[in-house]
From TrEMBL:
<feature type="compositionally biased region" description="Low complexity">
    <location>
        <begin position="540"/>
        <end position="553"/>
    </location>
</feature>
<feature type="compositionally biased region" description="Low complexity">
    <location>
        <begin position="509"/>
        <end position="525"/>
    </location>
</feature>
<dbReference type="InterPro" id="IPR026881">
    <property type="entry name" value="WYL_dom"/>
</dbReference>
<protein>
    <recommendedName>
        <fullName>DNA-binding protein</fullName>
    </recommendedName>
</protein>
<feature type="region of interest" description="Disordered">
    <location>
        <begin position="450"/>
        <end position="473"/>
    </location>
</feature>
<feature type="compositionally biased region" description="Low complexity">
    <location>
        <begin position="451"/>
        <end position="468"/>
    </location>
</feature>
<feature type="domain" description="Helicase XPB/Ssl2 N-terminal">
    <location>
        <begin position="577"/>
        <end position="699"/>
    </location>
</feature>
<dbReference type="Pfam" id="PF13625">
    <property type="entry name" value="Helicase_C_3"/>
</dbReference>
<feature type="region of interest" description="Disordered">
    <location>
        <begin position="509"/>
        <end position="553"/>
    </location>
</feature>
<feature type="domain" description="WYL">
    <location>
        <begin position="802"/>
        <end position="864"/>
    </location>
</feature>
<dbReference type="Pfam" id="PF13280">
    <property type="entry name" value="WYL"/>
</dbReference>
<dbReference type="InterPro" id="IPR032830">
    <property type="entry name" value="XPB/Ssl2_N"/>
</dbReference>
Length: 870
């Protein structure tokens, strides 16, 4: 290894420049915001990697131990040595688990460009240090206060000398050396222990109350003896009138060198709370999957002729959500889930008409024609990818507006990642094992400790605060909802991941995630030298690539595999029912669609479950007759599809309703009633319940009213009659349910959680462009005679004649040149080219920056310079 290779990088850009392409690809994959747009060179990449927004996003992607390592670097020296970092993380006792895991955490921070430098000069990027370092306004997550040097920066020289002398040290010549002497004393374990041994017990108690933070305390103008002893020796330092702080060095001595109360190098384990036979899990999940299909069908059948109106601000009203919940026989939160699921799958949308209402989409009709397993797979895939979250329905947004189902403001971009991660953790357990939900939540909090509404607060502040969306952070609540929704949808059964759930996730092994996490915590017991090439390429995700959602082609394959596994487990639709003498029919399982459609018109659903009970009533039979069925049709239908003889009471009911059906005729007068039996009309007029209809006789067989025909029909039916509507020509009107559909609609697009992860093609092209741009920006140039040196990034400036002459000479010699170029859009750039031909005001050259032959107009070249010989 050359001396230059061993030299530590002097900047983050230099550290990035020393990386190979695979390492740069890992950085851009972990932090995709750095590639939007593609940086021109590595200096610009380093600058972008240090911006506040990008650093905050990178810190949010760290697991707890990697974050603790970054926090320790924030309170360490700048730069810090590996030994100093190890002392802050493992303490004086050198916790072996922490020591073993630290190289992996440091490698993860290096990979994400949050840390650079070799083991002798580790540097946390400045923005991350500002975010994590302690201050009076933002206490450190470690609970440490400022250093002695920082706390004494505004103190008078005389007062500092008094502290030095009181601590038993010789006086110094200036404040800087005095602060250094106090620092040396407080960081010397033996001397510091001797000083504290002389302290009153009450004084030591004060220090112990402050040592884990917050490090600030209040004192009166005349502090007591126990505080005065500490103040006189600099063990407590004033920061403002009435406020003192425990210096960082003193706190670290009391903590035995540890920056954190408890380092967490190993993720919490997710253990099985209960274990079931895999066959039981799969059967339970399949049964729930069928129930999910039936629930979605029932929802959209209920909205068959047009669903609830769309609120002015969008979404369902509270009243309509309650009605939907009653119709589905579920709670309101569950109703919101099913409504949102149908919406995410593209089966439900608003019709866009003047009086806007919700209705099924044309996709719903196509969905009904598919096999049940394929229909379930479409729902499950939509659920996995959806960012709309039904769990927040009923809450309030930041402007205190109510969040309604199907309304705006329900997108939570972290939802797909959390769903995939929860299911991945379940896939890491043995088949049939159901985890403890609290263990799953603990694992997720370890993996993303900075996600959620309270992520910017210190641990002490978090204990007494509540986020706007509840006590738990959003990520934990998303995980709870995922466990519930997966069970409702049939992805899990009895809390364990089913076989088709594993296929849907694309899980390849039951031990993959857990093994990946365990491997991420092992590795060399110390740094390997400059660059620290540790075998932990993606440790920051804490779960390996299996935690990431699948690409669309991979998800399509996984969905098809899940449908194949689920299909044999779903019940086979039946073509028969069991008619009973109490005017009910029992469907012992799911019915085939034609049978189910006719039966839903002929009878009312009385109860659901493993078997569905239908009840025949005069109203339901009349509904079938209104739909155009005759009594003979109904008798034949029941006889064909019943495994038991048609009971006599049911046959009598059909004949009786059919005999009276259409005896009365209602038309538009505003409305009239005609009947050949004038005695029946007399009976209607004499009935007190007909008073509201305000009927009057026009002829012996005709009654008229100002009510509209629909109201007249409903009124007579409520009185026990079975009237039929007729057209203007006197023909009986057949009333069939009108299927209202929206125009073609696409499913809502998920809201991404930041820029998408670039694919291999984009990464390759981006790294190639960045390398080429960096070559142009850093290529050594020969200084021009009598010319001032150029500032970094400044384009060369030469006259047209000089540019032309230099180009022509380079064509003859074959040398490469450095040029400044301004394109047609006015964008300036630096390029390294090897001219091949100069003619007609253009230069044709091999562009090292773009790695291709290009032609440039000479008038757009700002200047040219020769490259240095080396």
């Amino acid at each position: 290894m050359s001396t230059e290779d061993q030299r530590a990088p002097r900047s983050l850009a230099a550290a990035l420049r020393a990386r190979d392409d695979a390492s740069l690809a890992a950085l851009l994959r972990a932090r995709p915001d750095l590639i939007t747009p593609v940086p021109t060179d590595l200096t610009q990449l380093a600058t972008r990697a240090g911006t506040r927004a990008s650093v905050v996003r990178a810190l949010e992607r760290l697991d707890r131990f990697a974050l603790q390592t970054a926090e320790a670097l924030a309170v360490a020296g700048d730069p810090a040595t590996y030994a100093e970092l190890l002392g802050l993380m493992a303490g004086d006792t050198r916790d072996q688990a922490v020591a073993d895991a630290l190289p992996g955490a440091l490698a993860a921070l290096r990979e994400q460009a949050l840390v650079w430098g070799d083991e002798g000069s580790l540097r946390l990027v400045r923005t991350a240090r500002e975010l994590l370092a302690p201050s009076a306004q933002h206490p450190s997550p470690t609970g440490l206060g400022p250093s002695v040097r920082e706390a004494t920066a505004g103190m008078s020289p005389g007062r500092i000398q008094e502290l030095v002398v009181a601590a038993g040290l010789p006086s110094t010549h200036d404040s800087v050396s005095a602060a250094g002497a106090l620092t040396a004393l407080f960081t010397h374990r033996r001397k510091m222990a001797a000083l504290l041994a002389k302290a009153p017990a009450d004084s030591v108690d004060v220090l112990k109350r402050l040592m884990w933070g917050p490090p600030y305390g209040q004192v009166t103008a005349d502090p007591g003896a126990r505080l005065r002893w500490l103040l006189d020796r600099g063990l407590l330092l004033p920061t403002a009138p009435g406020t003192v702080v425990l210096p960082r060095e003193v706190a670290l001595h009391l903590r035995e060198g540890r920056a954190h109360r408890a380092a967490e190098p190993v993720p919490p384990t997710v253990e099985a709370l209960a274990t079931h036979r895999p066959q039981v899990v799969d059967a339970t999940a399949a049964g729930q999957a069928y129930t999910a299909l039936a629930t979605v069908e029932e929802l959209l059948k209920d909205w068959h002729e047009g669903g609830p109106a769309v609120l002015r601000a969008g979404g369902l009203s509270v009243r309509d959500l309650k009605r939907t919940a009653v119709a589905l026989d579920v709670s309101e939160p569950m109703a919101a889930f099913w409504v949102e699921l149908a919406y995410a799958a593209g089966l439900l949308a608003s019709d866009g008409e003047a009086e806007e209402r919700y209705a099924a989409t044309p996709e719903y009709d196509e969905w009904l024609e598919r096999a049940p397993a394929d229909r379930w797979a479409q729902l499950a895939q939509a659920w996995l990818a959806a960012t709309r979250t039904s769990g927040v329905v009923g809450g309030r947004d930041l402007k205190e507006r109510a969040l309604s189902a199907l309304g705006p403001g329900l997108d939570r971009s972290a939802a797909p990642e959390v769903r995939h991660r929860v299911l991945t953790l379940l896939a890491g357990l043995p088949e049939g094992a159901a985890p403890d939900p609290e263990a799953v939540l603990a694992r997720l909090r370890w993996e993303r400790p900075l996600r959620g509404p309270q992520s910017r607060q210190s641990p002490q502040a978090q204990q007494g605060s509540q986020g706007s969306e509840g006590d738990d952070d959003l990520r934990s609540r998303l995980a709870r909802w995922t466990l519930t929704e997966a069970e409702l949808l049939g992805v899990t059964g009895r809390g364990a991941l089913s076989a088709h759930g594993r296929a849907l996730l694309g899980a390849r092994s039951a031990t993959g995630p857990a093994t990946a996490a365990a491997t991420a915590r092992t590795g060399p017991t110390g740094p390997t030298g400059p660059g620290d090439k540790l075998p932990v390429p993606h440790r920051a995700t804490a779960a390996g690539s299996s935690a990431a959602p699948l690409s669309p082609p991979e998800q399509a394959v996984a969905t098809a595999a899940a449908a194949r596994l689920l299909a044999p487990l779903l019940p086979e639709p039946l073509d028969h029912v069991l008619l009973q003498a109490d005017l009910t029919a029992v469907a012992p399982g799911p019915l085939r669609r034609p049978l189910a459609d006719v039966l839903s018109v002929l009878a009312d659903v009385e109860s659901k479950g493993g078997a569905t009970v239908y009840r025949f009533t005069p109203g339901s039979v009349r509904r079938a007759l209104d739909a155009g069925r005759s009594a003979s049709d109904l008798h034949a239908f029941l006889a064909e599809h019943s495994r038991t003889p048609v009971p006599q009471p049911l046959a009598y009911l059909i004949d009786d309703v059919a005999r009276r059906h259409g005896h009365l005729r209602v038309g538009a007068a505003s409305a009239y009633v005609r009947c050949d039996d004038d005695a029946l009309l007399n009976e209607i007029l004499a009935d007190k319940r007909a008073a509201a209809l305000r009927l009057r006789r026009l002829a012996p067989t005709v009654l008229a009213t100002q009510a509209d025909p629909a109201a007249l029909l409903e009124g007579l039916r409520s009185m026990g009659f079975a009237p039929a509507a007729e057209s203007a020509e006197g023909d009986v009107l057949i009333t069939r349910a009108h299927a209202h559909r929206t125009p073609p609609r696409t499913a809502p697009e998920p809201v991404p959680d930041g820029p998408p992860v670039p694919d291999t093609t984009l990464l390759t092209a981006a790294i190639r462009a960045i390398r080429a741009g960096d070559l142009a920006a850093t290529a050594p140039r020969k200084p021009a005679e009598d010319a001032a040196p150029l500032a970094p990034g400044e384009l060369p400036r030469t006259s047209s004649a000089e540019t032309l002459a230099t180009m022509q000479a380079a064509v003859l010699t074959g040398e490469a040149l450095w040029i400044g170029y301004v394109n047609a859009e006015g964008t300036a750039s630096q390029r390294v080219i090897a001219p091949v031909r100069v003619e007609g005001g253009f230069v044709t050259a091999y562009d090292h920056t773009a790695d291709e032959v290009r032609t440039y107009p000479l008038h757009r070249i700002t200047g040219v310079a020769e490259l240095a010989d080396d």
